[in-house]
Amino acid sequence: MKVLITAGPTKEPIDPVRYLTNRSSGKMGYALAAAAAKRGHSVLLISGPTALEIPEGVDYMPIESASEMYQAVASQIGRHELAIFAAAVADYTPFKIAEQKLKKADEEMTITLKRTKDILGSAREVMGFEGTLVGFAAETEDHLENAREKCLKKGCDLIITNDVSRSDIGFDSSENEVTLVYPDHSETLPQDSKEHLAFHLIEIIEEL
Ligand code: CTP
Questions:
Q1: What are phi and psi of 32, to 5 degrees?
Q2: Choice from 22, 23, 28, 85 to test ligand 1 binding pocket (greatest atom count within 8 A of CB)
Q3: Own/partner pairs for 196-203, CB < 8 Å, 24+ apart?
Q4: Count of domains forming the chain
Q5: How many CB atoms lie within 10 A of CB 127?
Q6: Pair 3, 21: CB distance under 8 Å
Q7: 88 within 8 A of 15, measured Cβ to Cβ
Q8: 45 neighbors 58 (Cβ within 8 angstroms)
Q9: Which of 60, 80, 90, 163 has the fewest other C-beta atoms within 10 Å?
Q10: Surface-to-core class of residue 110, CB atoms within 10 Å of its CB (0-12 exposed, 13-18 middle, 19+ buried)
Q11: What is the structure's pLDDT at 164?
């Protein structure tokens, strides 16, 4: 199968030397890319900046900002049968990027942000993707209900959700415990290393 995977954080520039980002390490997305490649799939990994090595046998497209990730996905998704969105994409980005480094002045400062485009939410209706669509949801409360709502709203076949309020799993950790949320049911998998979990998830997604 031809598989597109997004991974890692995005970096939203404020001025030439500063940016907004998040705690995503990219581990889950990279583990999924490595597992899919090992299982014989052709994998394109579109990733924000991480400290990880590019998995063997995987095509790699580096991006920085949410809008670069949107463009990369929009230009590539039509060539793929399966898309897995594991990236932690910024929901907001600075309204404008200062051309020069911002100087300190008052005691307080405000940066105005604007919404970024929802890449996963655009896959079906805007990009016309008809393949299998898998999203992630990082929640701190009501995670099953929120994920089910996202699954239906964004036309996903599956949302993989984890509770990011727990410090032992998820963001920036090597282990994860996820719940698979389908349009009509859900199932929690036992806590495991992201590498083992990635293999198991790819096997489950192949069945979809
Ligand atoms: N996502 C995306 N583009 C964005 C934001 C998120 O493609 N601009 C994708 C992520 O890769 C993930 C899924 O959407 O697969 C869920 O992201 P999450 O931040 O948990 O949820 P949101 O849809 O942004 O909703 P909210 O912030 O309200 O929880």
A1: -65, -40
A2: 85
A3: 197/28, 197/31, 198/28, 198/31, 198/32, 198/34, 198/35, 199/35, 199/38, 199/39, 201/32, 201/35, 201/160, 202/32, 202/35, 202/36, 202/39, 202/41, 203/39
A4: 1
A5: 17
A6: no
A7: no
A8: yes
A9: 60
A10: exposed
A11: 75
How many angstroms is it from 89 CA to the middle of ligand 1? 7
* Most confident of the following: 81-95, 150-164, 181-195: 81-95
Distance (Å, whole) CA 177 – CA 199: 14
Residue-range definition of the domain harbouring residue 196 = 2-207
Q: 121 C-alpha to center of ligand 1: Å?
A: 8
Average pLDDT, the chain: 94
- Taking only the tens place, the pLDDT of each residue in 96-105 is 999 999 999 9
CATH of the domain at 6: 3.40.50.10300
Retrieve residue 132's tokens: 């299998």
What secondary structure letter does DSSP report for 64? -
Q: Which residue has the tokens 């030439």?
A: 16
Q: Which amino acid is residue 182, in one-letter code?
A: Y
Q: Which residues line ligand 1 (CB under 6 A)?
A: 6, 66, 85, 87, 89, 91, 116, 118-120, 135-138, 150
Question: Residue 170 — pLDDT band, cuts 50, 70, 90?
Answer: low
Model pLDDT, residue 17: 98
Indicate left, alpha or beta for 159 from its phi (over 0: left) and psi (-120 to 50: alpha).
beta
Render pLDDT for 36-78 as a digit per residue (tens, 0 to 9). Answer: 999 999 999 999 999 999 999 999 999 999 999 999 999 999 9
